[in-house]
Amino acid sequence: MASITSPDQSNELSNKPSRVAILTGGGDCPGLNAAIRGVAKTLMLRTKTEIIGIEDGFLGFIERRSRTLTYQDCSGILSLGGTMIGTHNRANPFDYKGEDHSAAVKRYYDELALDALVIIGGDGTLSIGYELTKLGMNIVGVPKTIDNDLMCTERTFGFDTAVSIVTDAIDRLRTTGQSHKRIMIVETMGRNAGWIALHAGIAGGADSILIPEHPYDIKLVADACNKRMGTHHFSIVVVAEGAKPIDGEVCTRETIKDSPEPTRLGGIGDQLKQQLEQLTDAEIRSTTLGHIQRGGSPTSFDRIFATNLGSYAAELVINKQYNCAVIQRGNQLSEVSLDCVAHKTRNIPNDDPTLQTALSMGICFGTKALFRRSAKSSEYE
């Protein structure tokens, strides 16, 4: 006998989304497939929503490329790195190859008859998403970036995996440093925020950590290295790609004019090596990890976290809470308006607990401007 749907149930189902698209933008990141899985399976099971995958980020909207994702498509992808629907970090709809394609993006959105679009990305992707909401697109953002620099959220997925990779590299470089009595420099990603360098530096037992938030005095760094060489005969220095010396400039690897993020940082590790060679007698080696930090399988934490974020985003879509981004605060998931995260960067504050831990342990940051916070008061010692 066929099941009978009550009028109330029928009205409830008719109010649920019927077609929702998913897009991954910006650089690839461990956990993207887990987030896609979390969004898609939650919507499929809760509301029988049809899921559309936009191929290669916003470029798929510009070039009108998409495909329907089945439940099977979204199975078996949890542990995979990269993104099953592709991404692109130069396809800004508002300025792609010198032209504004935003109206065409909105037309394709309408032709696909989408109830909503879930965008998974960092500040660049979510900033584009915010601008697209002004054209009438219903958007929910999911915070992804290894840099952990997105506003309003305590953490982004991909960060834990990146820190784990850098920590493993430091562990391996330490054995070389110990064996050859060298200063080993490790350059990390992070753009203009030092979250990866700070966390991996502590996890890897670095003696000096140089971050973009505080320009360094090379003499203070050299003093810390020489002191360490005198007692342990090797030293580990972790430097974020956006770090710079006092009265100096950040190192730029290349400039890509048609990219939402035209300035590509890199090279500070080699520059630091040259600077330290003038102030110490030790052999120095510099290693730049580069894209190794963002590739491969995500950690168990990032698999769970990305899945939680994706499922929460799906619930926002079901409840028609659009034009917002999922965030984590106090170990709880919540949401904020997209305009709160758009066009902003979250840097390390001076009272960050992990930074304060590093200062308490005597780790050098190349500056005298940082002070350890007293546990008994809100004042710095």
UniProtKB/TrEMBL annotation:
ATP binds at residues 27, 90-91, 122-125. The keyword ATP-binding applies. Pathway: Carbohydrate degradation; glycolysis; D-glyceraldehyde 3-phosphate and glycerone phosphate from D-glucose: step 3/4. It is an enzyme of class 2 (transferase). Gene3D superfamilies: 3.40.50.450, Phosphofructokinase domain (3.40.50.460). Residues 19-316 form the Phosphofructokinase domain. This is ATP-dependent 6-phosphofructokinase. It comes from Paraglaciecola mesophila. The gene is pfkA.
